[in-house]
Amino acid sequence: MAINCTVNKKKVSLDIDPNTPLLWALRDHLSLLGTKYGCGIAQCGACTVWVNGEPMRSCVLPISAVSNARITTIEGLDPAGKHPVQVAWDELDVPQCGYCQAGQIMTAAGLLKKNPHPTDQEIVDGMSGNICRCGTYHRIQEAVKLASKKIKK
């Protein structure tokens, strides 16, 4: 049985085991490699994508759960890299190793979509589920603040 969904505004049909995690469907079957495998237990946030506009951990989400859903990966956030979060990340040179950054960006963009001008504490709280093994938390928080200033009111 094929799972039909929309990934980065393109309709796709995946004929794979319905228990396959969305992460592996994206990476192995659609060659979208921006979303990373970090922990496999939805604790680190490296695999964060949007499902119907909401940030979700793709490493534990079975493909069957996203039938007919709209999925946005880091590649689809803004293919030109001009989303305010992507611009802020670049301007502040946020990544160190970069491994967690797709998940960080997708989480930050989701936070700003719901709350375009968060307080410092709301940023800390909103980003707290994403782990950065390099410890760039201060730069991440500063980039979220900068991105919020770039969002049209």
Automatic annotation (TrEMBL):
InterPro entries: 2Fe-2S-bd, 2Fe-2S-bd_dom_sf, 2Fe-2S_ferredoxin-like_sf, 2Fe-2S_ferredoxin-type, 2Fe2S_fd_BS, Beta-grasp_dom_sf, Diverse_Oxidoreductases
Key word Oxidoreductase present: yes
Keywords recorded for this protein, A-Z: 2Fe-2S, Iron, Iron-sulfur, Metal-binding, Oxidoreductase
Gene3D superfamilies (UniProt xref): 3.10.20.30, [2Fe-2S]-binding domain
Gene Ontology MF terms: 2 iron, 2 sulfur cluster binding; metal ion binding; oxidoreductase activity
Entry keyword annotation includes Iron: yes
Domain of life of the organism encoding this protein: Bacteria
Sequence ranges assigned to domain 2Fe-2S ferredoxin-type in this UniProt record: 1-77
PANTHER family: BLR6218 PROTEIN, OXIDOREDUCTASE WITH IRON-SULFUR SUBUNIT
Name of this protein: (2Fe-2S)-binding protein
Organism: Aquirufa antheringensis
Record lineage: Bacteria, Pseudomonadati, Bacteroidota, Cytophagia, Cytophagales
